[in-house]
Amino acid sequence: MDLSPLPLRTRPAFRLAQLLSGLVAYGVSMGLMVRAQLGLDPWDVLHQGLAERLGWSFGSITALTGALVMLAWLPLRQRPGIGTVANVVVIALAVDLTLALIPPLSALPAQIALMVTAVVLNGLATAVYVGARLGPGPRDGLMTGLHARTGWSVRVVRTTIEVCVLAVGWLLGGTVGVGTVLYAAAIGPLTQLFLKFAAVREKKDLCP
Description:
Layout: H1 12-36, H2 42-54, H3 58-69, H4 82-101, H5 108-131, H6 138-150, H7 154-171, H8 178-198, H9 203-206
Helix pairs in contact: 1-4, 1-5, 2-3, 2-7, 3-4, 5-8, 6-7, 7-8
């Protein structure tokens, strides 16, 4: 599956809309996982640990880590695009807004439902904005770069990255729970599944 960026002139309106909707959905999914209080996804375990240490908002930390992760692109020869910059800004705003609008839940059935919804939404959102092929976000640029260089499946690469980030986040004091395990196990397969439908293809790719 080709996930390399396409020129902006290729279906620009559709792809920009797909990019922005995916980024907003991703930020919302992050906020929902925080409010479910059953454990965070690996990247958000890291974000939470950093936020507590630095005293910044959750969204601000996601923007900071996004910028730092881009440094890891250098040996992978990844090139930033519109989607890269939009990722840093839009997700940070969306997650902070979600946290401001949705209060924490205390009823376990509601927490479980919210966590499952958040994980599925996160996998879909990742596929949608990466599939727009306007340049992946910093974290997913790392994923797609490793996918391209190693030939490993998106599922394997994504899961490996999540496990490593989880370990660092836990050491920084981030919260790990049953939701973390669910996310780590499900996000790779979900992203790969949704990419089959969300990835924008060139006309030549559609020819039999």
